[in-house]
Amino acid sequence: MIKRKTIQKSLTLVVLIGGALIASVPLYWLVRSSLMTLGEIFIFPPLLWPKIMRWSNYYDAVTVVNFLLYFKNTMTIMIPVLFGTLLTSSMVGYGFARMRFPLKRFWFTLILSSLMLPYAVSMLPTFLLWARLGAINTFYPLTVPIWFGGGAFNIFLLRQFFLTIPRELEDAAIIDGASHFQIFARIMTPLIKPALIVVGLFTFLNVWNDFLNPLIYLNEEKKYTLALGLMQFQGTYSTDWSLLMAGATIVVIPPVIVFIFGQKYFIEGVTMTGLKV
Fold first, then answer.
1. Which of 40, 41, 201, 273 makes the best surface tag, with the fewest CB within 10 Å?
2. Domains of the chain listed by start with CATH number
3. Which residues contact 112 (CB under 8 A, 6 or more apart)?
């Protein structure tokens, strides 16, 4: 029996390691290509690793295009989006979980149904709306919408987390004369910290990797984000793939670091019931 369990664990470990290696191949290929010359990238059969690692590609990638400006633009979008997502989605989630108001089930179902709506369906009407408001080529279309609820998925996640918190905590606060806002700010918010970190991680990754929305709304290079700025390595007739791979590697590093340091909270947010002992 013990031997059988050992074999099962070993097979599971082998499958997991194999899956991890397969999943890491694109990242390996990205880093490998970023250290090569343009000629080495297209050698067939392909080289597994460059003969001479060209670290200068990273310096060239940062200096050829204005990486600092793109980073500043990305953070200009990131900060209000993160703050708005955490604030509004937690408030709306608390309202659906703890408060009573007419047609609550209907409104919650309507919010969830928006998850089934493809982005392509709302893309053109949304663009026309912002065009009428004169907000094209500004950061407003990329930051303002998130302040109206924080996103359907985030509302659902936080609402489910709020539902796991015992009602006795809320009842005791109400008896002491606390309002809903005081209960939300002083009692509920500290208890949902793991879920908020999960929402923050997802939001960070979505904004950092977002290419389509900046492409739609931003027209001037001085307002490009990092994801959009990588296009500057692609010319009309040629592309400097070594510098493009180096720039992409630089852009990938922050999300990897954020996930490494945040994975503990990510797992905790998924598995916890929402009550800290």
1. 273
2. 62-271 (1.10.3720.10)
3. 152, 156
